[in-house]
Amino acid sequence: MNNASSDVSRLSQIWRGTLAISPLSLAVIPWGLLAGSYAIDIGLTPLEAQALSAILFAGAAQLVATGMFDAQVGLWTMLLTTLFITSRHFLYSMSMREKLSPLPFKWRLGLGFLLTDELFAVCGHQTQQVFNRWYALGAGFSFYLVWNIASFIGIVAGKQIPNLNQWGLEFAVAATFIAIVIPTIKTWSVLTSVVVALVGSVLLSYWKIEGSLIIASLLAMVSGYLVESNAKDKGSSHQNSEEEA
């Protein structure tokens, strides 16, 4: 009876995780279609294109790597660029370390592979007490399946429909990140970071400054840090004033 109850609880958590990430899973479908069709357009075989989605499993890095492969960029340049683009996952893993460290190695390895922007958006805010491995598995694995199915459809469509990558599907990239970012805007520091990143990236791109996205990202992080530090200083000063009174 206990085993049956435990299985039901696990399935319930998996289903809850799947439902929680489902809006982001739907949003990533055009992105997956684009990744699959683009891989075919540059000359990869269907097996190679599908393996790219199944093994790399990093949307932005995957599209960039595919473009660099098409441009015949050197391997080390491609690897370093991919490493830089995906470096934010290091921050994700550090943030979730307390939640994952008590788990067995196979769980840490599996959830580490499934850790994406979307999974972090769903599970990153959870406390260690609330975090559930089966919930995270349901969210991460269902997203992985949707990504690979969408990539497969893109691969098939890419062979049947030429220039599918010119249909404007790349907007799904922006739409997905907008869906991730908006719910996290709960403090002035986060709002400041978002606004600075938005305005900075647009202006720097308009002025055709190289590395505009990187510069805008750095400006956003510094701005958010300064706002948060200022808020903490004011809070400390106010507390000290009350104690003196």
From TrEMBL:
Keywords: Cell membrane, Membrane, Transmembrane, Transmembrane helix, Transport. The chain crosses the membrane at residues 20-40, 75-91, 134-158, 213-231. GO terms for biological process: L-valine transmembrane transport. It comes from the Bacteria. It is a multi-pass membrane protein. The keyword Transit peptide does not apply. Coiled coil: none annotated. Its main location: membrane. One of its GO terms (cellular component) is plasma membrane. It is found in: Cell membrane. InterPro entries: Brnchd-chn_aa_trnsp_permease. The keyword S-adenosyl-L-methionine does not apply. Belongs to the AzlC family. PANTHER family: INNER MEMBRANE PROTEIN YGAZ. This is AzlC family ABC transporter permease.
